[in-house]
Fold each of these.
Amino acid sequence: MNFAFRLRQALLIVHVELGRAFFSKRAFWVYGLALFPLIPFMGRGLDVTWKRQRASTSSITREQLDRVAEGQTLEEVTQQLGKAFREGHWEERREKRTHDWRSYYEGSQRVDLDFTNGVLTHIRRENIADFDRTASSSPQSSNTSISAWRFSSGASGSL
């Protein structure tokens, strides 16, 4: 018996044993359980990618967004920035107030504008997850408050 024969014999035994161990019915369940944690991460990655693509259809620049100030009317902001990629409207009948919100996207930042009775009352800026940037830049939110979170939680309007 020479070395080549023993090597072929060892490879054949390895092939048979690996086939029996790795491709059995019981092994597929284990592989499925091992890959299960991958699903939420891939889902979030796809979600962020789709939202960025949908939001990037508008051509808003950071300079345009910086010119928006509290106290402007809904019509002024719409004329200045154009149609928002997300918007919503609801009314408080007891207090006779109307609320509108608009979301604009500038590439790496989402800006939510909250209007009460047609006047801009709150601006919230939120950095969006950006896979193109380095890992050292961490997204931070500025001007956040509980009332701003309530408006952007998606309770009304469409996505």
Amino acid sequence: MTLIWSWLTSKLAGPIGIGLAVVLAICLAVSRGQVTGLRLQLADMKLSNASELAQAIEASSRDQAARDKITLTTAVAEAEAQRQIITRTVTLTQKVPTYVSPETDSRICVPYGVVRLLDAAVLQTSPDAFPLPTGQSDESCSPIEASALAKGIIENYLNICEANAEQLTQLQIWVKEQGGVNGT
């Protein structure tokens, strides 16, 4: 600053030159102060943004941890429910011979009409889509034994219907609990 002052006073002799030099020195000092002030404001803004960013990252990490815990909990519950369904299916199919003996199989007729209806239900079509064997009617006995029909119905009901219902139940729980994280 003194260097500038010396140069100006040597070049601009007299009271006008000195006055201009004083005004210029004041302007330089003021502008230097403003730049310093702006730098301090910028540093404060950067610090504030960094702090807000750190808080946002921390909150996001907490939310993700809560969501992960919900996902794991519902997955474990669903897997346990599926295990129980499989256990019940196996247990019941093993009991079929107790309730539908080979003697019953030899006495009971499972008509083609019943087989065609069940096949149509499984395949979501009309019973007419399944032709009858030559010379047979819907009242004719099919080669399906009552015990095989019972096992098939048990497996379909438990492994498909009940297992699917359990998956949907756990999905509903998961969605509800995920919505409770961070009020979303």
